[in-house]
Amino acid sequence: MARRTKPVVVNLDDEFQIHMVNDRFQEFLHVMEEERPVEVDMSRVNSVDFAGLQLLYSLKRSCEEKDLDFRLSHVTPPVEQKIALCGLDRELLKDGADGSV
Amino acid sequence: MDQFKQVFVEEAEELLGTLEDNLLVLEDSPDDRDLIDAVFRVMHTIKGSAAMFDFKGIVDFTHVVESVLDRVRNGELTVSHELIDLTLKSRDHIQSMIGSPSDVTPEHEATSAVLIGALEKLAGTEKKAPLPSVKKVQNDEDVECYSLYRILFIPDREIFFSGTNLIALLEELQDLGEYSCYAYTSSIPSLAEYNPEMSYIRWEIYLTTKASLNAVKDVFIFVESSCELEISSLVEASELPDCLGEEKRLGEILIGRGLITPEELSDVLSTQKPVGQIMMENGLVSSTDVESALHQQQTERKLREKQGGERENTIRVKSEKLDSLVDSVGELVTAQARLSQISSQYDDPSLNALAELIERLSTELRDNAMGLRMVPIGTTFSRFKRLVRDLSNSLGKEMTLVTRGGETELDKSVIDKLNDPLVHLIRNSIDHGIEAPEIRAEAGKKREGTVSLVADYSGANVIIQIKDDGAGLDRERILAKGREKGLVGPDENLNENEIFKLILQPGFSTAQKITDVSGRGVGMDVVSKEIESLGGSIFITSTVGKGTTISLSLPLTLAIIEGLLVRIGDEKFVIPLASVQACLELGQEDREAHREKRLFPFRGGMVPYIRLRELFLDRRELPDREHLVVTQTENGIFGIVVDEVIGDYQTVIKNLGRLYKNLQLITGATILGDGTMALILDLNKITALAKVESTASL
Predict the structure, then answer these.
(1) Which of B39, B357, B410, B468 sits 20 to 30 Å CA-CA off B173?
(2) pLDDT at residue A79 in the model
(3) Interface ipTM
């Protein structure tokens, strides 16, 4: 069962695309070192590509391996549509994802 | 991202070249479905690629062209001269936009508007088309029933490097109909093993659509070489009842409830009867008809697989990298020559064996490296189809361009420099050679003139011929003009080739009028100089009323040649081995026998010769025995007298630099194994001198 401690909140910017995934990847690695649940605040994200979504999935998988909670919060409608389009809605939005802004 | 954009520009340029070729062939074969499909695919690919980089102006414009071509593909529009003309202009316009540093300029927008208006008028769709960036144009009204497709789509790991936007691609697919996507995420690793620039996803997509299988495949056109893709039609359109929507939704509901898997649904659906079987049972077709159709389907699939395989076996390399490789190989060949020379001075079997091995390997490496730079000349030839077409229209002449030997390969650096001379020669043939249709008809010729471009190998050279069946050259008029200009002496007799070659002299023209076609670009004297700078030569034949043939003889490569190393005094020279016919001894007796005439008996005839020692002003005494190298040149067979023939030599050609650019008789230099230099002789120039001397002595 996932540990219930205060999550680390990661805030993403307006765009989350291929040209910034390397920086975010490094940031996510640091986040995982804290051994705490992870919440990714998507409220400011309006544009995302598959490289970005796939990185989010990898972060989720990392959390699962360490038995840590993971959730996307404040997912904006355009991003939600793209997650569904890629068939990742069941994985990224089903548990604890919060569609409200 | 800039490097991705550069790749886009390079690929788009290549695609536009293919498009031009296909359009020109399509004009002659307007019913060729494969060509129509190919033209459509190119436009679709350019649009999709441009969308990835947000070149909205290009996307919007290509969308309209693509829509018109789609109507052609669907049989709603026929291929006409006007359609080809507009599509060619659209192609040029796209090329101009691609070459622009920004997306589009106001001038581009104005041209787009004009072309779009003309295209829509032609297609009968004169209302403004909606222009979503990468939305697929649907032709729902053409297809009466739905089909269900299962699409297995596995992007390559490196797909992001090509700039592919996978979400845009899925959106395009979604626009075709009802769309369900299943992502297989098991290959996506946790962060510890993750590379953020790699793709790990595998998708299985179910699409219910009125669109044809081709339309679905078109979505993947520009990623087909960078993914694994399998599109299967689970249920044919004609097999589906009108209530397809309900059945489809039922399957989705069952999957959504977790009662069945997508695989189980597909298994069930695939057990339905194939369309062929139903048609046979209804007596619509025979079993042979079905077998024949299935055979065609399998053949086409194999062909596509084969084409896909060929694509995967090629790799795009910048020509600068090949130049650098050839330079390195050149240095290696020089170093190897030095090693061979040093090893020959020591009686060491191990060293000699090693030197021989390195010589063999460097020869292999040289041939392979040179092979990489060899390019078929057909690509250059195909560009001239457009030139001939446009000139035909502007000059009101009827013409066809025939090309043969397009597979003949030449070094890329030679081909690059050949474009301008060929353009000028073709323009001249069309403007001055080919007569107006009425004049041709009066002369009993076909109204349509023909210009032929023919390439073929000839030893270490390639011969390119530009032939026309036009009026031909007026030998007497050219000779008279030559005498008038003082280029030919009053008593000088010239053979036919020499007379015709007068037209290569600067300022020499017998044309009655100067047109904007032949008045532009390089003149014939510049053509001649450019061919000479490539180490080539020109030969002209012509018959009045029948036409003219201009033959260009060009070396296969400008980088490394096989040479014959010779010595005069203390200096060494290289004679291109491809020109050498024989090496003979020239003793005191022979010298005495033909002292005045400088002729030497060879294969039943007398061959004129020139002594290099005299040519290079070496006034030392002649050795007892000299050597005569018999060479075949554009001036005929000539002998070159040297002190000693040393042997064959792999010659890495080095330019002499700008200071020596006007040096006659020498084409370049090479570094020998001992570090000294040898000059490479220009046989055509030297033998031209020999010819003058032997004529004078006669």
Answers:
(1) B39
(2) 92
(3) 0.92
- For residue B630, pLDDT over 60 is answered with yes
Range of the domain at B165: 140-272
Per-residue pLDDT for A2 more than 60? Answer: no
Chain B touched by A62 (CB under 8 Å) = yes
Six-digit token pair at B223?
A: 């990623």
- d(CA B138, nearest CA chain A) in Å: 20
Give me the domains of chain A, ranges plus CATH numbers: 8-92 (3.30.750.24)
Domain limit, last residue, from B272, B298, B327: B272
| pLDDT above 60: residue A54 | yes
In a domain? residue B313: no
Q: Is the CA virtual torsion B215, B221, B222, B228 positive or negative? A: positive
Which of B640, B530, B620, B665 lies closest to B577 in space, CA to CA? B640
**What is the 3-class SS of chain A, one letter each residue?**
CCECCCCEEEECCCEECHHHHHHHHHHHHHHHHCCCCEEEECCCCCEECHHHHHHHHHHHHHHHHCCECEEEECCCHHHHHHHHHCCCHHHHCCCCCCCCC
Domain tally, chain B:
5
Q: Which of B2, B151, B184, B191 to mutate to test the interface with A (most CBs of A within 10 A)?
A: B191
How does strand B177-184 pair with strand B537-543? unpaired
Asked if B178 and B94 sit in the same domain, the reply is no
Q: What is the CATH number of the domain that holds B593?
A: 2.30.30.40
Q: Which of B171, B182, B191 sits opposite A62 (nearest CB)?
A: B191
Per residue in B548-605, pLDDT (tens digit) is 999 998 877 777 778 899 998 888 999 988 888 999 888 777 777 666 677 888 888 8
What CATH number is attached to the domain comprising B337? 1.10.287
User: What is the percentage of chain B residues whose pLDDT exceeds 90?
Assistant: 12
Same domain for B603 and B517: no
Helix, strand, coil in percent for chain B, rounding step 5 = 50, 20, 30
Residue-wise pLDDT tens digits, B404-438: 888 888 888 888 888 888 988 998 888 888 999 99
